[in-house]
Amino acid sequence: MYVLFTVLASLLFLPVLAQHFFPYLIPDALYIVRIIGNAVKMSRYQRKKPFYTLLEYFLDQVKKKPDKPFIVFEGRTYTYLDADRESNRVARALQARARLEEGDTVALFMGNEPSYVFMWLALGKLGCTAALLNYNIRSKSLMHCFSCCDARALVLSQELKDAVKEILPALREQNVKVLVLAEQSDTEGIESFQDKINQASDDPLSTALRSNITAKSAAVYIYTSGTTGRRSLPKAAMISQERVWVASVILSNAGVTSQDVIYVNLPLYHASGLFIGVTCAIERGITIVLRRKFSASQFWDDCRRHNVTVIQYIGEIMRYLCNTPKKDNDRDHKVRLAVGNGIRADVWKEFLHRFGDIKIRELYAATEGNIGFMNMSGKPGSVGRMIYLHKKLFPYALIKYDAEKQEPVRNSEGLCLEVSKGETGLLVAKISSRSPFNGYARNPQQTKEKQLQDVFQKGDLYYNTGDLMRIDEDNFFYFQDRVGDTFRWKGENVATTEVAEILLMVDYIEEATVYGVKVAGFEGRTGMAAIKIKEGKQFDPVDAFSHVVNYLPEYALPRFIRIQNSLDVTSTYKQIKMKLVDEGFNPVTIEDPLYFLNGQKKSYVPMTAEIYSAIESGDIKL
Question: CA 70, CA 286: separation in Å to the nearest integer?
Answer without folding.
Answer: 7
